Amino acid sequence: ILHIDTSNARVGILTTSPSDALHVFGVIRTHTSSTSKYIRVFGGNSGNFLDSYGNSLFIRPGGSTANATQLDGSGNLFVAGNLGVGTTSPSTKLEVNGGADAIAKITGTSTAARLDLATTNHHVFMQLIESDGRFRIYDQTAANEYLTISNAGNVGIGTSSPSEVLTLDDTDPKLALRDAGTERAFLQVDSSNNFVINNKSISNMIFETSDTERMRINSS
Length: 220
Known about the structure:
Elements: E1 2-5, E2 10-13, E3 22-24, E4 26-31, E5 38-43, E6 55-60, E7 69-72, E8 77-78, E9 83-85, E10 94-96, E11 112-118, E12 123-129, E13 134-139, E14 144-149, E15 155-157, E16 166-168, E17 174-179, E18 182-189, E19 195-199, E20 205-209, E21 212-217
Parallel strand pairs: 2-3, 9-10, 15-16
Antiparallel strand pairs: 1-2, 4-5, 5-6, 6-7, 7-8, 11-12, 12-13, 13-14, 14-15, 17-18, 18-19, 20-21
């Protein structure tokens, strides 16, 4: 049951050939006076031993199995509460505090790396494409590219290949200017391909050069 290897300063439990300072063949369990709160580590010196849920590590802080932290046999980690990296008081499901360093690093294959955001009806991801250095925000469900930044720094809305510093590609494209949520003016190419400059209020439309007014169109 218990084997002490004095020559190598190792202790084995249920094994006669401990390979570490403490080598247990079976399950390690620690708990308080309440057996509903415990840590169990499953393992052995030949293969992986898993519990009935398929976990190799099971931390149960309370009476409910659903509140446990679990590491399964495939290396997948499940945390029931909030997870903090660089912080001891996470306020959301995942909170990362990198201090002066980078917050997170996401790597993928040689062609692309992406961060996925999924809801019930949409799957949106942010992706860096290696082949052309383009960064995009793409809705895979709707097959819609929301935003693209080219390797030249051009920003495209509704297009994956912006040719200018800012390119807006849409049916009857419209650029609105708002003040406290109220649309005050807009630029638009309408359905007849007219270029429209619209001041929606009854105020003046003023043209300036060198901070000096040169022309004014009033409400009349």
